[in-house]
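As a next step, the fold was encoded as tokens, giving this record:
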Amino acid sequence: MNEERRRAFKRWLALGPKSREAQASYAMRLFLPALEVVGFKWVEKGFDGVNAQVNAIELERENVQGQIDFISIIFDKYRSPRFQIALGTKEKLVPHKWVRGGRIVRRKSGLDKHNWWGAKWWHLNKGVRFAFAVNEVFAILPQAVDFLSNGTVGPNIWESKIESP
């Protein structure tokens, strides 16, 4: 990954409360090594040339079919200690048609399309709740990798019905 992108992310973390920096560091210590083992790399720009959001970690890998799998860990831009994880597979060649897409959710239902993981406003100890949520998602990561690898939709993967133009 480009060092400039890593510095931009660190600057964004430093602009917020110290707790956000500590919580994001904890999430990165768990998620990044586990995803790097299965071939993901932190990238500055997506393969389609789109810049990553400053509050997100964009991970990509090329799969055996020559497509690009990606996982985006998106941290809340404001002061809430929470994050979302989006994932998908696109064709490598222009026009980068979608193969599959989805999100990691607490449970698959019609209402749970977007799940913010972390502390809610009523939690008294937000740091402990955030760490609990990171550990929950860490246990679900194998479902995400299976979904990207072979399309198997696990109980905590909400699959987007994406129509490419």
Observations:
- The chain is about 35% helix and 25% strand.
- Strands lie at 41-42, 56-62, 67-75, 82-91, 98-104, 117-118, 157-160.
- The helical segments are 3-15, 18-37, 126-150.
- The mean pLDDT is 85.
